[in-house]
Each structure stands twice: as structure tokens, then as C-alpha cells.
Design brief:
Blueprint (H helix, E strand, L loop, with lengths): L15 E4 L6 H10 L3 E4 L3 E5 L11 E4 L5 H4 L9 E3 L2 H10 L4 E3 L4 H11 L5 E7 L4 H9 L3 E12 L5 H8 L3 E6 L2 H10 L2 H6 L4 E4 L2 H8 L6 E4 L5 H8 L4
Parallel strand pairs: 1-2, 1-9, 4-5, 4-7, 5-6, 7-8, 9-10, 10-11
Antiparallel strand pairs: 3-8
Helix pairs in contact: 7-9
């Protein structure tokens, strides 16, 4: 069974936890990790560029979000009463803060979201599927096959960072990192691609905490880790439970 970071026999300073997710989720995750007694280290491995939604985009019958990164582009006050179906609780919370009044979260995966839409919208209708560039094609096709009219709009673009931020790189090479949190397959791939030889060698002392089995598979395809711990559910609470409290 996957184990959380074990500090028995670990160096006294091995209390760092690298967090690879981009803003806006980065800051609350840093706070949550610090609350467990760890030293959070920011290392966003994806650069997110916000794109605009065409002003002439028609009002949809429902909005579909697979990531909280899409909220800024579709946040029109006139649409706040449009039902908003989102991939999970974290994205739902951001949508509510933005002003959307009818927010329905799925179980944390794209498949969960597709099932929710089929069950909740028997009349089908016009969906705005707001995604990142290069994402959402399969979901759009599947929903169209179910009878939905789907406007797939790319409202942000994601590119990988080419190297680890300095603080994370220094802590890793110094043996001060106990665990690294990975929230997506793309983040995991970007992290591994950014490592140099010295950083790669240190992963054998580090536990990777993965949000899902898919993320874990991406990590396992790379260099050896001390352990890979997969969250019981695809959400932050389960990831933090996998991390555990610092001792």
C-alpha cells in the first residue's frame, strides 16, 4: 500500500513539500500544507495564459468547466444564473466566489462530469464547454453524440515551465524535500522534463503524492521515487490525507 512521507530516520531538515500546481490553486494549497506542519515550497510547473471569450458568444443553457482556470473568461454577470456544471468541489467553490448561483460539482473527473450532465439535463440543450487550448475535444464529441449542442471554447492556454524554480531546485538537491504534490498528468510530465541529473537522483528519497492513478502512471514512467502515494479520491482533501501531518 502507498505510504505517506515517513520522517523516521529522515534528515531533520527533510520537511519540505513541493507544490507543482499553478495559481490560483497554489496559494490555498500552500496554506493547507503549512497547516499540517510541513514547509511548503511553490514550484508551479505550468504557465497559464488567460484568453478572451468572443463577446458575441450566445448565452448557453448550461456552462461546463473542467478546470477553475476557465472561470475568469466566462465570468459575465448576465450569465451568473446559468447552471454551471464543474468537474469537482474546488472548481465549484471558485465558481460560487465569482458569482455563479447554480453550481453543480461532479466527482472529480471528466467522466464524472459527463455522467452528471447526461443525468441532470435530459432535455439536452446548448452547452458552453470552456477549456484550455488543446483540451476538451473528446468530451465535446461525446456530448454531441448524446444529443447536446456544444460550443467548445478555448479560454486559456497552458505551457510547461522549462526548469524548476530556484527555491524548489535548491531544496531538492539539498535533501530537504519529503514529498511533492502533483495535481495533473501534464504537471507531472512538465516537472520530470525540467529536472537535471542531480535533481533526478534525489527523487529516490522523495514521496510523490498523485491526485489520480493517471497522474501516478505518468510519474512511474520516469525515474525512481521513494514511493508514489495515490489519493483515495481526486481532490485536495484526499491528497493532504495521503501526505499526512509532519512529525
Amino acid at each position: 500500500m502507498p505510504r505517506a512521507p515517513d520522517q523516521h530516520n529522515a534528515p531533520a531538515m527533510q520537511n519540505g513539500v513541493i507544490i507543482t500546481r499553478p495559481p490560483p490553486g497554489l496559494a490555498p494549497t500552500m496554506a493547507a500544507v503549512a497547516g499540517l506542519g510541513w514547509r511548503p515550497i511553490a514550484a508551479s510547473m505550468l504557465h497559464v495564459e488567460q484568453l478572451s471569450l468572443a463577446p458575441a458568444t450566445p448565452r448557453p443553457d448550461a456552462i461546463v468547466l473542467t478546470s477553475g482556470q476557465a472561470i475568469a473568461a466566462i465570468n459575465r454577470p448576465a450569465w451568473h444564473d446559468v447552471p454551471c456544471y464543474v468537474v469537482g468541489e474546488a472548481t465549484g467553490a471558485r465558481a460560487r466566489v465569482a458569482g455563479f448561483t447554480h453550481v453543480v460539482p461532479a466527482g472529480g473527473t471528466a467522466d464524472d462530469l459527463g455522467g452528471l450532465l447526461r443525468a441532470a439535463l435530459p432535455a439536452r440543450g446548448l452547452l458552453l464547454l470552456a477549456v484550455g487550448r488543446g483540451y476538451g475535444r473528446d468530451m465535446a464529441q461525446a456530448l454531441r453524440a448524446e444529443g447536446f449542442r456544444v460550443m467548445r471554447r478555448c479560454v486559456y492556454a497552458v505551457s510547461p515551465e522549462q526548469r524548476l524554480p530556484a527555491q524548489a531546485a535548491q531544496a531538492l538537491v539539498a535533501g530537504q524535500v519529503a514529498a511533492i504534490l502533483f495535481y495533473s498528468t501534464r504537471t507531472a510530465q512538465a516537472f520530470l522534463a525540467a529536472l537535471n541529473a542531480a535533481q533526478t537522483a534525489m527523487l529516490r528519497h522523495v514521496v510523490a503524492v498523485a491526485m489520480s492513478a493517471g497522474v501516478a502512471n505518468a510519474l512511474a514512467a520516469g525515474p525512481a521515487w521513494r514511493n508514489i502515494c495515490v489519493a483515495a479520491r481526486p481532490d485536495q482533501a484526499a491528497m493532504l490525507a495521503c501526505l499526512g501531518e509532519a512529525r
